[in-house]
C-alpha cells in the first residue's frame, strides 16, 4: 500500500444506540401498533393510568400506561427522545444481561414515579394518562449526569446538571401554561409526570450504577 495513500474509512453503523435502548424503542412502537389493532380508545380506557382508577385498584396501569400513546406524533416524539437520552444511560449501565435489566427497570420506575406525582397532584382525575414521557424524562435526567469528561458522574449541583434541569423546568412551565408540546397533537400533556420522572432519574441513577458496580 502506498504510504501516502489515505487509509480506507471504516463504515459507521447506522444505529449507534446500544441494543437495550434500541430494543426498548422498538417495543414501544410495537405496543402502539398493538394498541391501534385492538382499538386505540378502548385500549386507553382499559389500560391508561388515572388517579381515580388507581384508587379503585388498577395499579397495573401505572406501568401499562407508559407503553400507550395518543397518536403517531406522540409515540414517535417519545421514541426519539428515549433513544437520544437513553443511549448514553444504557451504555453506562452496560449491555450485558444485568445492565439491560437495570436499564428497563430504571426506565419503568421513573415512569411509575412520574405517574404517581401526577396522581398526587390530581387525585380525582378520571381522564386516562398515557405515554412514556415521564420515563423518558428520567433518562434525560440521568444523561445530564454524564455530561462530564471521564468516568465520574457530574455532581447534582454542577453547572451542566443545573443548566439542563433549568431548561427542562422552563420547558414544562411553558407546557403547563400553553398546554402544547411537540407530538402531543390536541391531547392534554401531563407536565407533572415529566417533572416527577426527571426528579426520579436524578436521584436514582447513581444508586442504580452502584448496585451494578459501574459507579
Topology:
Layout: H1 19-38, H2 40-47, H3 51-55, H4 61-64, H5 72-93, H6 97-121, H7 133-144, H8 159-178, H9 191-212
Q: How would you sum up this structure, described in words?
A:
It is built from nine helices and no strands. The protein has one domain: Rhomboid-like (Rhomboid-like fold), CATH 1.20.1540.10. It has 215 residues and is mainly α. The protein is globular, with a radius of gyration of 19 Å. It has helices at 19-38, 40-47, 51-55, 61-64, 72-93, 97-121, 133-144, 159-178, 191-212. Mean pLDDT is 89; it is low at 1-14. The longest helix is centred in the middle third of the chain and has 25 residues, at 97-121.
Short overview:
By secondary structure, the protein is mostly helical. The protein has helices at residues 19-38, 40-47, 51-55, 61-64, 72-93, 97-121, 133-144, 159-178, 191-212. The chain is globular.
The CATH superfamily appears as Rhomboid-like
How many H/I helical runs? 9
Report, as a whole number of angstroms, the end-to-end distance. Answer: 45 Å
Secondary structure category: mainly alpha
- The CATH C-level name is Mainly Alpha
CATH topology: Rhomboid-like fold
Characterize the overall form.
Answer: globular
Order of helices and strands: HHHHHHHHH
- What proportion of the residues is helical, as a percent range? 55-70%
Indicate the mean pLDDT. Answer: 89
Low-confidence stretches are 1-14
Strand content: under 5%
Which architecture does the CATH hierarchy give at level 2?
Up-down Bundle
Query: Biggest β-sheet, characterized?
Result: none
The total count of strands amounts to 0
Number of domains: 1
Q: What does the radius of gyration come to?
A: 19 Å
Amino acid at each position: 500500500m502506498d504510504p501516502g495513500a489515505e487509509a480506507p474509512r471504516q463504515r459507521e453503523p447506522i444505529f449507534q444506540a446500544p441494543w437495550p435502548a434500541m430494543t426498548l424503542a422498538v417495543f414501544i412502537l410495537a405496543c402502539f401498533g398493538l394498541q391501534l389493532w385492538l382499538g386505540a380508545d378502548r385500549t386507553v380506557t382499559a389500560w391508561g393510568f388515572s388517579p381515580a382508577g388507581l384508587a379503585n385498584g388498577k395499579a397495573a396501569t401505572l406501568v401499562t400506561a407508559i407503553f400507550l400513546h395518543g397518536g403517531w406524533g406522540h409515540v414517535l416524539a417519545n421514541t426519539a427522545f428515549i433513544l437520544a437520552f437513553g443511549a448514553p444511560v444504557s451504555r453506562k449501565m452496560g449491555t450485558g444481561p444485568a445492565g439491560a435489566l437495570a436499564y428497563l427497570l430504571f426506565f419503568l420506575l421513573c415512569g411509575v414515579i412520574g405517574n404517581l406525582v401526577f396522581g398526587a397532584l390530581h387525585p380525582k382525575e378520571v381522564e386516562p394518562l398515557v405515554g412514556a414521557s415521564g420515563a423518558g424524562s428520567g433518562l434525560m435526567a440521568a444523561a445530564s449526569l454524564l455530561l462530564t469528561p471521564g468516568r465520574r458522574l457530574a455532581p447534582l449541583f454542577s453547572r451542566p446538571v443545573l443548566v439542563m434541569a433549568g431548561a427542562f423546568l422552563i420547558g414544562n412551565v411553558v407546557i403547563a401554561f400553553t398546554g402544547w408540546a411537540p407530538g402531543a397533537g390536541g391531547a392534554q400533556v401531563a407536565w407533572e409526570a415529566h417533572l416527577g420522572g426527571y426528579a426520579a432519574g436524578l436521584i436514582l441513577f447513581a444508586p442504580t450504577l452502584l448496585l451494578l458496580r459501574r459507579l
